Amino acid sequence: MSEDEAPGVDEVTSALLTASRLLVAISVRSLAAVEGAVTLPQFRLLVVLSSQGPSKLVTLAGLLEVNPSTAMRMVDRLAAAGLVRREASPESGREIRIQVTAAGRGIVDDVTARRRADIAQVVSRMPAGQRHALVAALRAFTDAGGEPPVTSVARLGWT
Fold this sequence. Notes:
It contains six helices and three strands; from the N terminus they run H-H-E-H-H-E-E-H-H. It has one domain (about 10-155): Winged helix-like DNA-binding domain superfamily/Winged helix DNA-binding domain (Arc Repressor Mutant, subunit A). A hairpin with a 7-residue loop joins strand 2 and strand 3. The protein is mainly alpha-helical. The longest helix is centred in the N-terminal third of the chain and has 24 residues, at about 10-30.
């Protein structure tokens, strides 16, 4: 396909918006299984902790783009539910780090597995050649956006 025949920016943008609507629907369905256990913002916090490891509250707030007081309330609720725990930092006894528990990681893994299965069902209905082209296009898209590649199933949880 020549440059003149390639879809324009508006056409590609529209296609991506439609695809993102599908991905949001899949995400919502995958979270429905844990409805009542965690909210979407709390799930995001669990995903960050699962992928980043133990973190200071201010670091979590920055990664989630929320105020530290908002992050503290999320941590309080997740700690009360046994999904995260607070521990003194090995470097400084005054510094507290938040860490995901096995139960919290289980929620991330469960939601991620559901999301992965739903996406796999959609992808399996595509012809092989289109799947190959989709992988190349999505890699180019995420590279252009500066998004690092996902290296494990747990990292698929959010963002």
